[in-house]
Every structure is written in C-alpha cells, then in structure tokens.
Write a structure and sequence with these properties.
The protein is mostly beta strands and about 450 residues long. It contains 1 helix and 41 strands. It is globular.
Length: about 450
C-alpha cells in the first residue's frame, strides 16, 4: 500500500533512486523511506541524537548517496553535517552558520544566512567549506526560526524572500462584527498570540515573542485591571488553563510543563516529548494534546492527570487532526480534520478518556478553530472564507444535536492553516477575542536573480 508523507519541503529530500530522507518531527533523528511506500527506517548514522536535538533540512549531494543535514541543538554538535545512505560515518561541515536553514547549489556552493545577509561559500569535494563566504544579498532580515524562504535552481536562478510579518492585534468583536475593544498595542508578527480566556473570564493567557528573535513566552493579563505578568522565561507556547484557573499547562522545551498562574514557583515537567497542548478537560482529569506521527500527521491524545501520567490515543488517521476543544460538560470533542481536502469541523463523544464512534460533521464550507460557548448551547468556528460561524447545540443524555452553521461576521486572521487557538469567546457568548490583521500587507517583494553565480565568481 502506498503511504503518503506530507510535510514542509525543508524536512525532506529525495534522490534520483526514489529514496526519501526526512525528519518526521521535532527533536527526532532523520529517517529514510522509499517513494514507493513501505516502513520508514532509521539512517545508520553513528551518533545517538541528543535529548534536545532536531535533525532537519536534509539535502542530497550530487552523488545521490551522501546528504547534508542540520543538527539543531545547544551543544557543540550543532551545525551542518554530512551523512550517507551507505555508511554510519558523519562529519561536521560547519558549526558556525547559526540556526538558519541552508541550500546546496550543484555549482558547488553552500548558501545560508549570516547576519541578515544571504551568503555563498564553496563546498569542496571533501565536503568541507573553503574560502570566504561571499555576500549575495544583504540588508534583508531572514524569516525567523526554521523557515527557509530562499531557493536555487540548477540553471543559475535564485529567489529570496526576506522576513514576512504583518501588523496584528488582539481585538474584541460583538456578534455583529463590530469592534468593541482591543488588547495591547499593534505589533508585527509572523505567528499569532494564541489567546485563551480564563474559566472565570477575568484573565487572559497570551503567547508573546520577544522584540528581537529569541523564544516565545507566556503572559497572563488581568482583563479588569489591564496588568500583565510574565509566566515563563524559557521557550513556551500553546498555553491552556486548568479548570480552576490556578495553573497553566503549555508546550515547553522538554515536553508538557505546568506552572502556577500567578507566575510564582518553578515550572514542572509532567510529560516528555514533542506534544502540543490543546485543552485541559473541564473535570481536570485529562490534558488533550496533539502529536505528529511518523506515518500520519497530527493525531489526538489524552494525558491522564490523575494517578500515573498515562497517554491514550484518541484519534489517528491519514488526515490531519487539530484544534481540539471539549464541550463545557466534557462529553463532546470538537476538532478540525482535513480528510475531505479542506479542514472541516467534527464532533465526537468523549467518555472516560476515550472517543465514541458517533462522529458528526458540523461545518459545510470548511472549518477551523472550534470554541464552545461556556453554557454549551453554541459551537463557534471559522469557515474557510474567514466567516465566524455559530451553530446552536442541544444535548440530551448521550445524544447531541448541532444546528446548521450561521455566519456572524468575517474575520481577518493571520492564518487559517496553523494549529493555534486564535479565537476565543466571552463566557456569555456575546463577545469574541480574535487575533486580527491590521491594514494591508506591506511585505517586501521577493528578489529573483537570474544568474546569481556571476556574483560569486567575480
């Protein structure tokens, strides 16, 4: 049976023989698989991945057997390495190129970002960098993180797109779409702030990046007083409230962490691995989280918060599952799934940490970001065209009836495809807090060079 692996281009490479080398997830080692399908296998590299390591950005060299890849870690082994399909030997090519991605040009150049400049440096026949790095494009900041916004062709064409950011602000809207308030000041971002209103509606969890690079951190804002408290000081994202509002769970460097919502005390790691927190169940018994599979994309799990920290797989398929939200009574799980070719909203019963077989499709024209009204009488989500939709909900015993979705107003969100929580609703269901784009895009146009090698051969 043919298996499909869907991922960013930076995560995989394929040679002329149909061997795919890929990075299946964060902080995991490279795998290989045939383009015809089959079971992925671990590459015979002679290094055990470090705990905080991510192997990424594989690129085959001209012989189709050796490949470059990046070891992303805080240790001395970080940098660009060369490995082989035929040998366990691996050699460090460069350790000082920083966290930015790279490409290899068949003319013999390694192209990477250094100090807001795109540079090229010779990669010789022994797979060592030689000579000085030559600047191709300067004065344009690269995209943050692992995003590679540049590429080269075999016939001398290079395309480069600098950092992309949009003006963004958290804004309150009424049910007619009228803006009735804002939080904070407009800021330029490339990811949203993941707003999460506290169970009592008086506080707000947000994820904020520092002004210049670095890690995301979590803040709590008092919606009545307008004051904020920084909760984390190391990498943190996807924050969720405990049902009583006293604690916060989030995705941290080492897995899932907990911290007091007051900001006092140390963070506690409660579960290891690259797991993306989505929601704490209303009864406090489970944390619903997502994890990428080797053969699947995002799958849904429940982590027991009573007794032994034990995970239960709720749903995995060839489709992508994300944006999970339990109903206020904890009996129904809403989520987005793209098995139809676009994301749609589904609801399934949830009992004692397990999903029932009674799945119902709710959306009719695409759907992401489901969120329940606090009394359970409505389910809101965002349709593919940006409309905020509302469906009436009635539950009787083990049955649920969800009405035909009705459009409330059109949103202006940062992205429709990402796994975040960019919409929340006030406890009374009358106001919506949405991460909103301000104005029109002013991103710099891409730069295209038709004969870039002439710049480095002068």
């Amino acid at each position: 049976m043919h298996k499909c692996y869907v991922m960013q281009r930076e995560l995989l490479a394929e040679n002329s023989s149909g061997v795919i080398v890929f990075s299946p997830d964060y902080r995991t080692q490279l795998l290989q698989v045939s383009s015809q399908g089959g079971e992925p296998g671990v590459l015979p590299l002679n290094a055990v991945p470090l705990q905080d390591e991510r192997q990424i950005n594989p690129i085959f060299l001209p012989d189709g057997r050796k490949f470059l890849f990046r070891r992303q870690t805080g240790a001395a082994q970080a940098g660009i390495w060369v490995g082989s399909l035929d040998s366990s030997e691996m050699t460090q090519v460069a350790g000082e190129v920083g966290p930015a991605p790279f490409v290899f040009a068949r003319q013999g150049w390694l192209i990477y970002v250094r100090n807001d400049a795109l540079v090229a440096q010779t990669l010789d026949s022994t797979n060592k960098l030689s000579g000085e790095a030559i600047t191709i494009i300067s004065g344009q900041r690269n995209a943050l993180g692992n995003v590679r916004r540049f590429s080269v062709s075999d016939n001398g064409i290079l395309i480069w797109q600098g950092q992309w950011q949009r003006e963004y602000q958290l804004a309150w809207y009424d049910r007619e779409g009228k803006q009735v308030g804002t939080i904070g000041t407009p800021t330029k971002v490339n990811v949203g702030q993941d707003p999460q209103i506290s169970p009592d509606g008086k506080r707000l969890l947000i994820k904020k990046p520092p002004n210049e690079g670095g890690n995301n951190n979590i803040w709590v804002e008092d919606l009545e007083k307008g004051t904020t408290i920084r909760i984390t000081s190391t990498f943190a994202q996807m924050p969720i409230w405990s049902p009583d509002g006293n604690r916060i769970a989030y995705n941290c460097d080492v897995g899932i962490c907990l911290k007091n919502a007051s900001g006092l005390g140390e963070a506690e790691q409660i579960y290891a691995g690259t797991n993306f927190t989505n929601q704490w169940s209303p009864d406090g018994r489970y944390i619903i989280f997502l994890r990428r599979g080797v053969k699947t994309r995002l799958d849904i799990y429940a982590l027991s918060m009573t007794g032994e920290r034990k995970e239960t797989l709720l749903l995995n398929s060839a489709a992508d599952e994300q944006n999970t939200q339990l109903s206020p009574d904890g009996k129904w799980l809403a989520y987005a799934n793209d098995e139809t070719g676009t994301y749609e909203i589904y609801v399934q019963s949830f009992t004692d940490g397990k999903l029932g077989s009674d799945r119902k499709r709710i959306s009719t024209a695409g759907g992401k970001f489901p969120v329940w009204r606090r009394d359970g009488t409505e389910l809101f989500f965002v349709a593919q065209d940006g409309q905020l939709m509302a469906s009436g909900v009635k539950t009787t015993g083990t049955e649920i009836e969800v009405g035909t979705p009705k459009a409330l107003f059109r949103t202006r969100m940062l992205s429709w495809t990402i796994n975040v929580h960019e919409v929340d609703v006030s406890p009374d269901g009358q106001r919506f807090l949405i991460g909103t784009l301000i104005g029109d895009s002013q991103a710099q146009a891409p730069t295209v060079l038709l004969n870039w090698t002439a710049l480095v051969q002068k």
